[in-house]
Write a structure and sequence with these properties.
By secondary structure, the protein is α+β, with helices and mostly antiparallel strands. It has one domain: 2-Layer Sandwich (60s Ribosomal Protein L30, Chain: A). It is about 30% helix and about 25% strand. The chain contains three helices and seven strands; from the N terminus they run αββββαβαββ. The strands form two sheets. The chain has a five-stranded mixed sheet with strand order 1-2-7-5-6, covered by helices on one side. Helix 2 packs across helix 3.
């Protein structure tokens, strides 16, 4: 089953790659590695939710936002490769969580991205990871995620 088929079976679709809001590109390939820029949770060019986790958003809301970020990062990868089936390994995920003072469960929020990647890619989706609490993110997004993936290996 292709990754696209798996996405469909989960009731998900890959969005169009997000347009950069500053001076960068959505993803860069270096050899067999693709590095995505940080992706915030947007759909159809609009931020899905704003605010800090632990104030305006619950941990569960932010988990869903992290999944949306991962889908946007995968869209950037597919834009370079033509197919998510080119991914041979998800290498690393870094998640940034716009955290209220005292909120310390960033790892659970970033599981939204990690869990999706493992469901989509199985063993190839298991990755190294960092989950970081921050005081703010671009456009007041709740979460931002970037990926490093290996292709063709």
């Amino acid at each position: 089953m292709s990754v696209q088929d798996t996405l469909r079976s989960m009731g998900l679709t890959l969005p169009q790659p997000a347009r950069p809001v500053a001076s960068y590109v959505p993803a860069v390939r270096v050899g067999n590695l693709i590095y995505t820029s940080g992706q915030i949770p947007t759909r159809d060019g609009r931020l899905t939710r704003r605010g800090k986790v632990g104030i305006e958003l619950t941990q569960d809301d932010a988990y869903d936002e992290a999944q949306t970020c991962a889908l946007n990062a995968l869209a950037a990868v597919q834009d370079l490769t033509g197919s998510l089936d080119a991914i041979s390994q998800v290498v690393k995920v870094t998640g940034y969580v716009n955290s209220a003072e005292g909120f310390s469960d960033q790892s659970t929020v970033v599981n939204g991205a990690s869990d999706l990647l493992v469901k989509l890619f199985g063993e190839k989706g298991k990755h190294a990871r960092a989950a970081i609490g921050v005081a703010g993110l671009p456009l007041d997004a709740a979460v931002e995620v970037d990926l490093i993936v290996e292709v063709g290996g």
